[in-house]
Amino acid sequence: MASNTVTTVWKENMLFESDNPSGHTLMMDTSPEHGGENKGLGPKAMMLSSLAGCSGLDVVSLLKKMRAEADDFKMVVTGELTEEHPKYYHKVHVEYHFYGQDLKEDKINKAVDLSVETYCGVMEMFRQFANVTTEVYLHKQ
């Protein structure tokens, strides 16, 4: 069974440094209104980045295999937090934006669907606690 371990070290004030099994590190902090100095990524927002990264890796890989690559691709992920503590994302919306001259709509939709429904483990984790919706936008240049 596969597992990952990260080590997170308090640096100062509200700043933490966390490693990754790949050897890379990142800094996490919070806003001044919560006692931090915005010297790093916010942990909850980083969860949204993880969701986009996971699904994005799937989509790019699948489109390459399908020979349906876009000229450019971005995702916009919006999470809505609950009002009560502990605050967590109860609604998440993922927008997939594809840019290019010759966008293959059917293959793009299939790649996104495969990521969302089959391959993206982070998406599946989010579905355990949030209502996740998705939209695909094609921007023909």
UniProtKB/TrEMBL annotation:
A Pfam family this chain is assigned to:
OsmC
Q: Which domain of life is it from?
A: Bacteria
InterPro entries assigned to the protein according to its UniProt record, in alphabetical order: KH_dom-like_a/b, OsmC/Ohr_fam, OsmC/Ohrsf
Name of the protein this chain belongs to = OsmC family protein
Q: Which organism is it from?
A: Asprobacillus argus
Q: What is the lineage of its organism?
A: Bacteria, Pseudomonadati, Bacteroidota, Flavobacteriia, Flavobacteriales
